[in-house]
Write a structure and sequence with these properties.
It holds the Pfam family Ala_racemase_N. Belongs to the pyridoxal phosphate-binding protein YggS/PROSC family. Pyridoxal 5'-phosphate (PLP)-binding protein, which is involved in PLP homeostasis. Keywords: Pyridoxal phosphate. By secondary structure, the protein is of the alpha/beta class. The chain has a single domain, classed as Alanine racemase (TIM Barrel, Alpha-Beta Barrel). 41% of the residues lie in helices and 15% in strands. The strands form 2 sheets. The protein has a 6-stranded parallel sheet. Helix 4 crosses helix 5. The C terminus is likely disordered. Bound molecules: pyridoxal-5'-phosphate. Pyridoxal-5'-phosphate binds next to strand 8 and helix 9.
Length: 252
């Protein structure tokens, strides 16, 4: 199989697994968005992905994403989704090109993004990242903080809050992974009751190559899939998740 055919094959296989997971959970496959995660994947392969119909890419690091955005400016129908922790001093880059940011976890970042977006006359879809695994090394707010945090977000007019995002525990043990997804769903149900005007709590971005079926069973509306589409990464995941010492794909 050539590269393009292999990519199409992987994508079809993932879509089929998403459909099957939806059917098993009694859900409509149209409710679940597949977000292809393209960190470490080079421009040539991204162009192949575009050629077979992919129109959005999830990227963990803002500089890497911005480089790709600039290189692929000839494809204006692409949507760039930032899914990794953002430092305040990099908000100006994100504000320039990102359509969506799934890792909001501080008011300082919200403020910096909003200010930069106002300058550019842009808006940004935003998810709040929640640490559902209780691991000290993970980014995200602890579940107890999210309600108070969300109540402050209407102050930032350029941020369109859509819901929540999490990374589950990295483990092959379903019994330890599933509670992370359940926690995020239950949190969203609670926040839906009390969310301020203009704050939507519909999106649940959870599930990756190793656990997206479980996430769908627990209500994911977006699954973020990298290696199962693009193949394993040479860069270890510790470059993206501080303290990561799991056994997932991409770990040397
Ligand atoms: C890399 C990454 C993913 C995708 O991980 P895979 O295991 O390659 O599917 C999902 N979410 C975030 C935040 C990531 O950084």
């Amino acid at each position: 199989m050539d590269e393009l055919a292999a990519l199409r094959h992987n994508l079809d296989a993932i879509r089929a697994r998403i459909d099957a997971a939806c059917r098993a959970a009694g859900r409509d496959p149209g409710e679940v968005r597949l977000l292809p995660v393209s960190k470490t994947v080079d421009e040539a392969r991204l162009r192949q992905a575009h050629a077979i119909g992919i129109r959005e890419f999830g990227e963990n690091k803002v500089q890497e994403a911005m480089g790709k955005w600039e290189a692929m400016a000839d494809l204006p129908d692409l949507r760039w989704v930032l899914i990794g922790h953002l430092q305040t001093n990099k908000a100006k880059y994100a504000a320039r090109f990102a359509s969506e940011f799934q890792a909001l976890d501080s008011l300082r970042v919200a403020e910096a993004l909003d200010a930069q977006l106002q300058k550019q006359g842009r808006a940004l879809d935003v998810l709040v990242q929640v640490n559902t695994s209780g691991e000290a090394t993970k980014f995200g707010l602890v579940p107890e903080e999210v309600s108070g945090f969300v109540r402050q977000l209407p102050a930032f007019a350029s941020l369109r809050v859509r819901g929540l995002m999490t990374l589950a525990l990295f483990s092959d043990d379903e019994a330890r992974v599933r509670p992370c997804f359940v926690r995020l769903r239950e949190l969203r149900e609670r926040l839906r009751q009390e969310a301020p005007e203009g704050i939507a709590m519909d999106e649940l971005s959870m599930g990756m190559s190793g656990d997206f079926e479980l996430a769908i069973a627990e209500g994911a509306t977006t699954v973020r899939v990298g290696t199962a589409i693009f193949g394993s990464r040479a860069t270890p995941d510790s470059a993206y998740w501080p303290g990561f010492a799991g056994s997932g794909a991409g770990t040397p």
